[in-house]
Structures are given as C-alpha cells and as structure tokens.
Amino acid sequence: MEVKRTIATLLKDGFILVFNQDKLDVVGAAEALIRAGVNNIEITCRISKPLEKIARLSKALPDFAVGAASLIDSDGMLDVYNKAHSDDPLPTVQRAMEAGAGFVVSAGGFTERTYKRISGKAAMIPGCGSATEIINQFSMGANLCKVFPAKQLGGPDFIKAVDPAIHKTVSLVPMGGTNARNMPDYFDAGVLVLGGSFSMIEKNVMNRIIDQQDYDLLAERLTSIKSLINRHRTRKWPDIDFATASVEQISKATGRSFNLG
Hints:
Mean pLDDT: 97
Shape: globular
Number of helices: 13
Number of strands: 9
Largest sheet: 6 strands, parallel
CATH class: Alpha Beta
C-alpha cells in the first residue's frame, strides 16, 4: 500500500489499534476491525513472532493497512537484545517492511539513515516525547508523530501545551493510556488520530472475547470505539467529512502537514 493511501486510511479511521494480544488471531481481529469501519492495525513487536503475523495479515487482507510497532531503530540496542533473545529477535525496520508493513512505528525516533532508506516506501510514525523530538523527526520526514507514553507525558494537557509550540503543523498520535474517558479531550486538543490497545475494552468483556474467540463481540466493541471517535472528531472538525475527505483537504482544513511532498 503506497504511503499516501496509508495516511489517508489512518486519517479516515481516526484510530490505530495496537495488536498486543498473542491469544487472539490476527486475521480475525483485523476482520473485526473492518466490520467496525477501521481498516488498519499495528502489530507490536512486543508479542511473539511479529513478522509472521505481519506477513500472514498482509497476504490475507492486501487492501488493509498493516503496521509494525515498537520498532527500535538502533543497531547497538538490537544487537544486545537479539543476542539475548535469539529465538524471537526484534526485527529491523527494513525486515518489518519486507514482511509487509505499510507503516512503521518506533518506540523512539528513527535515524536519519532510515529516513533516507525508506522515506516514500512506508509511512513513518516515530515515537516522540518532546517538542524537540517532534520537530527533529518531522524535519527528517516523519508523516505523523507518535506521542508516547502519552499518559505519563501528561495526556491531553501535553498535546495542548506542545502543539502551539510546533505551530500546530505536525499531526500528533497519542498512544499509551488512551480510553473512552480522555478521548474527547485528545480530539479537542487537535488530535486527528489516536492509538489504543485492547485495554480500551472492558477487562471482563475482553476476557470473554479471548476465552471464546468471539470476534463478533470484538467487532461490536470496536464499533462502539469507532462511533465515539467519529462523534468527537466531528465535534472538533464539523466542516470535515473524514469518511470522504482527501489527505489534501484534511491538511488544508487542519493546517497539518503529512510530509507527502
């Protein structure tokens, strides 16, 4: 999936589900997302065999935007970790792309070398925790910037504080601690897309979904999350129909640049 199309999908969805549950089938979860009106997922490299899951999902649903997350773009750290975990090593950004990832999400920033190597080939969403990191990553080519860990950084208040300092130019994606309660505040702060894991679903319901492999119930809960996102984004941006607007139209209406040239 080309970069612009991937960004368009993320903006249309307004939500990136972090797939961090080894006990669920990744294709079943993706199909539940599709029924809920969400056409993307990011597979965190904190679960087992992430490349296998990315490859399987990319093959099964070629029009679905598949991301690789929790990437560490550091040769030194990868070497240390992978020597200790040779049975299930952390993949490089390049290997994640080769497996089928259409967007890549890092725990920290991406290196300049990586931007030069893959810019324009996959959407890039680096992890950032300060205005300096956001500006530096965007300047090198980031399409969106992940704010992580969003809750510990201050949640919506952090977005409200840092966004004016970066002149409301970069689209910030909070991840970590997002939920139905703080979702309105994030969108009110100017967020277009937020990330969240299965922890957004009530624990007892999630246990039932896992125990019974109930993807209909998962689709039902994800539909509720998507409906909340639609309602809160429309309240903030009443003049934008995110379901049909182009990336250019969203950029013009919000002032956000997505580094698409």
